[in-house]
Design a protein that fits this description.
This protein is an alpha+beta fold. It contains two helices and eleven strands, in the order αβββαββββββββ.
Length: about 160
């Protein structure tokens, strides 16, 4: 259905005195409502059906105990540290400009108002301040990589 046919249908509905007309054709749906002096037209384009590719069946995984033990040991070791997390979704930057130094390095001491990084969201650069005091132990995110809300960015030793 093209624009001229839609306009013609709107004129017809307004002259006929009908309050509402719904028309559905294959992948196109239109609803015209006339109430009082104002007319409302709602046009919906139905989504095209997507064909799903067949999924490959993965072979059964063989459990491996050694990496799990290493991972749990690393988690226990990191549990004594505080985490600075991302308050927004965006792109993580360790410095304000390419020629500038990083805001913080491993071993630097931060307080509750220290700027530790910048997160770009919707072309706005948001300075992220540490909410904790202590020494930066580990940077958990690579520079210029995307981060999610609540994603850990830094580990801080509070002692």
């Amino acid at each position: 259905m093209d624009l001229k046919e839609i306009q013609s249908l709107i004129r017809f509905v307004s002259k006929s005195g009908v309050n509402e007309v719904k028309l559905e054709v294959e992948d196109f749906k239109i609803t015209i409502k006339a109430g009082g002096s104002a007319e409302t037209t709602i046009v919906h384009q139905a989504p095209m059906p997507m064909h799903q590719a067949p999924m490959a069946v993965a072979p059964a995984a063989v459990p491996v105990a050694a990496p799990v033990a290493e991972e749990s040991a690393a988690t226990d070791e990191d549990s004594k540290y505080l985490t600075i997390t991302s308050p927004i979704i965006g792109t993580f930057y360790r410095k304000s400009a390419p020629e500038k130094p990083n805001f913080v390095e491993v071993g630097d001491t931060v307080n509750s108002e220290s700027v530790v990084c910048i997160i770009e969201a919707m072309k706005l650069f948001n300075e992220i301040e540490s909410e904790v005091s202590g020494k930066i132990v580990k940077v958990l995110v690579d520079d210029a990589s995307p981060v999610e809300f609540g994603q850990p960015l830094f580990l801080v030793d509070p002692s």
